Amino acid sequence: MLNQTEEVQNDAGLLAGNPLKGKVNRRRFLQAAGLTAGAASTLGLAGCTGIIGVDPSTGPVPAIADVLNFALNLEYFEANFYAYITTGAGLPASVTGPGAGTVTGGAKVTFTDPNVAALANQLAADEAAHVMFLRNGMLAFGLTPVAAPALNLAAMGTPSGDNSFLALARQLETVGTSAYEGGIQYLSTNVLAVEYAARIHDTEGQHEAALRQFCIMKGVTSSPVDQYDRPPILSGNQIFNTSPITGLNTARNASEVLQVVYAAPGQTGVSSGGFFPAGLNGTIKTT
Q1: Is residue 277 assigned to a domain?
Q2: pTM (2 decimals)?
Q3: Is 123 inside a domain boundary?
């Protein structure tokens, strides 16, 4: 049984995609997938690949594999967005899966502030690592990660400098953060799945907070992406994206997330558009 230090090293190795240092802790990842060792050995994945129950208030509850693939679609998007911003190219084919969609609209930004450039580079590194982490984790416990979908990175405009980058990245990160908050309920029967989702969510929250602070310091304004978004306004004491009543951030459900990334505000039944011209890959893809 691994001690805590070995588990942390294990996680770091998996995150880096290192096959020697990243030996998968099979027991922990099987827990995350909701599988027993026997079920995995016989590929008995019905509990992870289909509907796992019904919530009387909202209808069918998605399976863990579906939730992870929904998150993976969003991570592909964020990782490609920041990769183009910082390097002028998207994710390598080795991490986007067979049959990955075409990425259009991306462009490298020439930053004038080295601090903004450093922020963009760490965002790019974190999001690319999230893609690898989710893909490797799903493969480790017998689940199939979807390939990267077709993306139109210019759906909300193409950043041309420090300020336009900060404004758009701020808008995107608020959606990514809230998507994990909305989806974590469907992982609640698997402690490790909740742990990893919480750790990614924490990272996304740090991303959003840093971008909000940069926007405040530089006087960058950005429009709200929907009714839940509260852009940073220093003079209005709106530094954080929290409710003035509860002090909590918004947890968007899948439909609300898709309405933003599909550029379909308030619309249900939409399955493509905006940043995802052919829709998400996987089962959760309609507003």
Answers
A1: no
A2: 0.81
A3: yes
